[in-house]
């Protein structure tokens, strides 16, 4: 039998219950042409024993420690060789026929490095899911948002995003990626640990001239918060810290200092908003994120030099050239459809 071209790689950490619930769908809708691999991040529960007993055909890669999403995947993917990886959260329910459409996009377009399916909510199937929705974008200051989800406003799927389109970033919850490009770029930045490492990777892909695509004909449902709940001070810390790091690493020199200064001010306002809402732990998390950023600035700038020294295409597409913070909180634009497509770099975005 010929070796499979595709590996579905599920990262697990103490997620036996999630594997028991969602892995059967992956096995059922695998369509026999992808290998399923579970990369275990040194779990303390009986995840590995459960897999060995119930899924003996599934390969298990046991990482020596829990290095988070970034290190966990980097470590596991060094042990396998395929044309494409499908990085899949353990709390994803896949649907019939989810693999072929996204893989076809990669097969037909050699300049596409990554593809994201439509990500719906598992608990509320009519809605998009927070982590990815119908494809990710960033604004001029580096704030991420999605078609179908801006900040905490999540849209109902009415077919409004049923057209395949180029996006800025694809969600790590269900990420189809060209293996050669993943390794060419050194994989995920392990210092990010978890959260927004896929945005950093996609940004670096675009700087190298590759495209990121959204494929609505491939659909999955995400439970969300399987590893870390959405409302969590540690997640707040990671998101604010990591976003400052990836902005500093990847933004072109022109305007970077001014935009970084504005980001620091806006982060301060976010901390104040948490404070007046009584979320003291989130306020402290933002302060902690900034202290880390200042302390590690020399390391981040060294990474920036490495990234910028390999830039192939500095004029990248799918950046919202306005402030999504201003549009959302001041102008009240809650839906992606309320943003002008002409305000995105690289042409009209719908």
List the helices and strands and how they pair.
Elements: E1 6-12, H1 16-28, E2 34-41, H2 47-54, E3 59-63, H3 68-77, E4 84-88, E5 92-94, H4 99-108, E6 112-121, E7 136-139, E8 144-146, E9 149-150, E10 153-154, E11 165-167, E12 174-178, H5 179-184, H6 197-207, E13 211-222, H7 233-250, H8 256-276, H9 280-295, H10 297-308, E14 319-320, H11 324-330
Parallel strand pairs: 1-2, 1-4, 2-3, 6-13, 7-14
Antiparallel strand pairs: 4-12, 5-13, 6-12, 7-8, 9-10, 11-13
Helix pairs in contact: 1-2, 6-7, 7-8, 7-9, 7-10, 8-9
Tags for this model:
globular; 38% helix; 11 helices; 350 residues; Spore Coat Polysaccharide Biosynthesis Protein SpsA, Chain A; alpha/beta; single chain; three-stranded mixed beta sheet; nine-stranded mixed beta sheet
